[in-house]
Amino acid sequence: MLPKLIVTDLDGTFINRDHTISDGNRQAVRAAQAAGVPVFFATGRPWRWLGFLHEFDDLDPLVFASNGAADEVVRTEPIDPYVGREVLDDVLAADIGALPALEAANQFIADEGYPMVPELEDLTVYADVGEAMLTTEFVKLVFLRTDVTSPELGSMILPIIDGRLYASWSTLTKPGFVEISGFGVTKAAALRKYCHEAEIDPADIVAFGDGANDYEMLRLAGKGYTMATHDKSLNQFEVVGEANDGAFG
Hints:
This protein folds into 2 domains: 5-75 and 185-245, 3-Layer(aba) Sandwich (Rossmann fold); 81-181, 2-Layer Sandwich (Hypothetical Protein, Haloacid Dehalogenase-like Hydrolase, Chain: A, domain 2). The protein contains 6 helices and 13 strands.
């Protein structure tokens, strides 16, 4: 029996390591749609980094961006600024060498010393992140440390957050990059909300992912699959292949 819905992570799952879409994956999306099974995308990327998905506009896919903090219906789940400020202060006080920044709708606000990201050059504002939190609505607080991997940085930050917010990472290598969203704001939560509104049983969903931020989404789905290169938190899920080999397709 066909699933009611397929949902997939992007980086390291649907798109290759060189940030391109394989022909096999491209064809699989259209074949699923032709069979009456929509394919949705769930990603940690903000909206402005999703232009390459325009080739699927004719299929009208739903996209959960910023780890579920924003969707294409333009609903957002901002972080409580005071909780965010507490977490920021605690991480900085721990002196773990992590540089903070904020992901807002149309801005990337970073502390001095945060390296410039070429794709964000036109949107980056250097300012005091702690002060900006109290005047700017933001969906993610991020931390960067270039000499450790994302899982290593995550292991330092998780005990500091202590459940006040939700931390995840979508890469396994250096530089370490940890994304923090509001408590309960995840890809899985966004998917669960959609399923409730569309009256779809999550057991009828197939999901694909490779990162720690995909764990709850894969667990929610009736069938969850991961890539050969995946975060250790996904070891319980069946491996379908390598992203670079078009494993999604």
